[in-house]
Amino acid sequence: MPWRQRFSRWDVKTAPYLYIAPFFLLFALVGLFPLLYTGWVALNKWSLITGNQGFVGLANFQYVLAQPRFWDGVANTFSIFLLSSVPQLIMALGIAAVLNANLRAKTFWRMGVLVPYVVAPVAVSLVFGQLFADESGVLNAILTSVGLDPIGWHSDRFWSHIAIATMVNFRWTGYNTLIFLAAMQAIPRDVTEAAVVDGANRWQTFINVTVPMLRPTIIFVVITSTIGGLQIFDEPRLFDNFSLGGPDREWMTVTMYLYELGWNSQRNLGRSAAVAWLLFVIIVIFALLNYVITRRIADSDHRPNRKALVK
User: Between 53 and which of 45, 137, 219, 308 could a Cys-Cys bridge form, CB atoms 3.0 to 4.6 Å apart?
Assistant: First the structure.
């Protein structure tokens, strides 16, 4: 076989791998290596000041798991995650459905929903800090003006989670809205037109046709929201001036506890790395659970329910 034909066959076989190689090389450099190195740090007594002081095995994990503050951080993280992610996905679906309709100035409104996403977290925290201030906040002023008691946004655990979840929803709802909007625009028009011919109104078409065909996108958004929500750091850290998560750690998340161990009070990078790996395991477990649950829901009814359209 001539060398040109051999080179051509070799090129066809290897070209796809060469195209994707830069991603894997970059991932190995900035993703896989830090992950593995953090695991090594977690197995050592590693001080921020003096460096590595020797191998300690699983002692850092045992210490972290025995701390009540770690479990408080886990509970706070899941509470804020649920209070933000569930309403966020529902609002994103609704806004995407509105933007998918025949509106005037479509581009303006579609770009407008993305504005909160590009605003710096510090700016968002400053604005919402004025809204949720205990003494002179706008919301408490409105409540007292109508004869209601003010809310302790920085002293009550539940209301602090509501405030932080509101900041998260403000920043990320528009981002998820555009993802859903892109998926809605990929739905063939003849499918929705057939539903209208069958006698379905807009709500029935949305529930029985649009949402079932968005299930792969919903699975993607749920998984990415889980990964991002369990790593929340900016909003709770900037919620007060002390950045400790409240006087009794009412809104301290796992990532805030990680930062406190490594760079704040103890300056123990080994224990901080142990928290990072425990958080990584928690994220993987819940991401897999979300994937399995959403996939089962999707597989149970993967086609639009046209019989339910006219009911």
Answer: 45
